[in-house]
Every structure is written in C-alpha cells, then in structure tokens.
Design goal:
Helices cover 49% and strands 10% of the residues. The protein folds into two domains: 112 residues, 2-Layer Sandwich (Phosphorylase Kinase, domain 1), CATH 3.30.200; 250 residues, Aminoglycoside 3'-phosphotransferase, Chain: A, domain 2. It contains eleven helices and nine strands. It has a five-stranded antiparallel sheet with strand order 1-2-3-5-4, with helices on one face. A two-stranded antiparallel ribbon has the order 6-9.
C-alpha cells in the first residue's frame, strides 16, 4: 500500500548544524595557518563544496597547491583515510599526497590534484583509451594485500544493510510506499541471491566509489584516485561495475560489455580471478552491479531527505534504468523487475525529479 509522503525540510535539517560548520571553518583556517609558511598569512579558505559524505574542501593561496579538508570526526574517519592512502601509494597508484593531518580534529592538508575530472574529460573520441587506463589502475589497486585489521569485510551483513537503505529511504521515505509482508519476502529472496553472488566471486580491494567523479587526469595525463577512505575487501567486480555503469555517466551496452570482458582477460592473466567463462563473469558483473544500484537508489534518496543534497535526485532515473535493465535480463530477477515497474515506478513518475528512465543518460 502507499502512504502520503512526508517531506523532510533540508533547510530546517541543515540549520541546526550551520553554526557548528562555521566554527569548524574558523578552526580549520587557524590550523592551516599553523601548518603552512608564515608568509602565506592571513589564510583565506575558498570552498570547493563537499561530497556525498560530510567532508568539505577548500582552496587557499599557496605556491605548493594544497587543499584544506574538513572531515568532521563524528562522521568521517581521518585515521582510516590516512591508512588507505598509504596502502594505495604502495600499489603505485596516484592519490593526493598529504602534507599535514590532525585525525583528532579531522583536519588535513592534501595535494590539490586539479579539476580535470574523468567525468569532464571523457568523450566518445577518448573513451576507449581512458577506460583502459582506469581499468589498469583498478588492477593495480586489486593487487593490494589483504589486511583484515585495516580493511573491513564486505560481508553478508554489510551487503544486507546497504540493500535495506533502498527499502527504507527510496521505497519508504522518498516514494511513500509501505512494504507488505509479501513484498518484503520478494525483496529478501532477491537480496539473498545478490549477496550470494557478491560473496561467491574472488574477494579483493574495493575502492567502493570507483567512478568518473573520483578519478582525475593529472598534468602528465596519469590517473589520480580520490575518495577512497571507505575501502572494503569484497567482490572483484564491484569497482568495475561502478566504473562502467557509472551513476552519473552512461555508455552503450556493447561498449560496457567489451570493456568488462577486457578486464576479465587481464584479471585472469594477473591471477585476480580464475579462468571462468564470459557468461559467468558477466553474471558476477551484472548482479553485483544490481546490488550497488539498488543500494544507490536508497543512498541518493537519503542524501536528499536527510542531508539536504537535492542534486542527487537528478541521477535517480539513470540508476532506475540500470536496475530494471539488469533485473529484466535474468529470469531469477524478473519478479523483482515486474514489482518495481508496477508498484514503485508509478510513484516515482509523480515526483518532480523524474524523467523517463528508458532514455536517462542518453
């Protein structure tokens, strides 16, 4: 059944944190002044905005090109960021160098890697070469040695918590739909299948957000990687599908399949995955991608309703497209696809952010 949608006011939600945020900016300014050359004073921070988390980034006038980062300790783990940064560096992958850090306060000075986001740089003329480069970098990351003390497991419990974000925030809070017992059982059956696929494939380093907005082209045209602090140890195809079925950028299905199978060959040669068939590999890729996209529907809804980040609503139609295209392709998932189209899609169509999912990303 459906219930009236109660909208959370993002302005009211954010108002209570405004004073604390301003106070943190003042404290960060003072900290930056203490950790840079005296001749640079007074420091003036210029906001670059934030990301899907609660980190904020600031530029300031300095010849060494550093960014000041505010990572509130209540929500962001700076110590984990520093540890994963060291791990990535050991694999020969370019990530922001760190000039200074205070994990207790959640302040950092990190290398300013510029504004040449993969998202802005890639087009039909250079896509093949840039995606080959991104896949090469991904394979470097996947050569990381497992360290259970450092990298959390992408286990069944975590996979399920992520999938339940969809039920709570997308179906429930954004669309106003209360799941029946029958619908809960349908989702449970699908979620178990997706979890099984994620756990059955080889487990490797997972960046967790390896996509066009977290990759940068540097001055020497090498690839830089950012936003890696949430890294986990999980399914080998997770980052690949994040890259190739990007929630912000869509490529024709035949190109995605070609790039995915190229990764398969290279990963087999590198010993990252066994020599499985193309069909089985693509099932790994598709189903772990479906787990990600179901989760992302919930996360984008939560980013709007809880955190006041309305921009992510515009990306929902493309994520719906990925979700339905994959679910409709596999007989085991078609009941989920039919339920989504019959029950949730009409509710989504009533929302101001909705556009025809069948053409989203074109």
């Amino acid at each position: 059944m459906t219930t009236p949608h109660t909208k959370v006011d993002p302005i009211a939600t954010n108002a209570s944190t405004a004073a604390a945020t301003d106070g943190r900016k003042l404290a960060l300014t003072h900290w930056v002044s203490q950790n840079t050359s005296a001749e640079l004073h007074p420091i003036e921070l210029h906001s670059l905005g934030g990301d899907a988390g609660f980190r904020r980034y600031f530029r300031f006038q300095t010849p060494s090109q550093w960014l000041a980062v505010d990572a509130p300790p209540a929500s962001e783990d700076t110590a984990q960021f520093l540890a994963i940064a060291r791990l990535i560096e050991q694999q020969g992958v370019r990530s922001p160098r760190i000039a200074a850090a205070d994990a207790e306060q959640g302040f950092l000075l990190v290398e300013d890697m510029g504004d040449r986001l993969f998202f802005r740089e890639v087009d039909s003329s250079n896509a093949d070469s840039l995606y080959q480069q991104a896949i090469s970098t991904l394979l470097q990351l996947q050569h990381s040695q497992d360290d259970i003390a450092l990298i959390p497991r992408y286990d069944r419990a975590l996979l399920r918590r992520e999938l339940e974000i969809f039920s709570e925030w997308f179906a429930g809070k954004l669309l106003g739909h209360s799941l029946t017992v029958t619908e809960q059982q349908l989702l449970n059956d699908v979620f178990i299948q997706l979890e099984d696929i994620a756990l059955a494939q080889p487990q490797t380093f997972v960046h967790r957000d390896y996509h066009s907005r977290n990759l940068l082209l540097l001055d020497d045209n090498s690839l830089g990687v950012i936003d890696f602090q949430g890294a986990l140890w999980g399914g080998a195809t997770y980052d690949l599908v994040s890259l190739l079925r990007d929630c912000y950028l869509r490529w024709p299905a035949e190109k995605v399949t070609h790039w995915a199978l190229d990764y398969r060959q290279r990963a087999i040669a590198a010993g990252i995955i066994p020599n499985i068939s193309e069909t089985e590999f693509l099932r790994w890729f598709d189903w772990l991608g479906l787990q990600r996209h179901i989760k992302v529907l919930g996360i984008f809804a939560r980013l709007y309703l809880r955190d006041g980040k309305a921009g992510y609503l515009n990306d929902l139609p493309l994520v719906i497209r990925y979700t339905l295209e994959i679910a409709e392709h596999y007989p085991q998932l078609q009941a989920f696809a039919a339920w989504f189209k019959h029950t949730l899609l009409p509710l989504a169509q009533q929302q101001s952010w909705y556009q025809d999912y069948r053409t989203a990303g074109n």
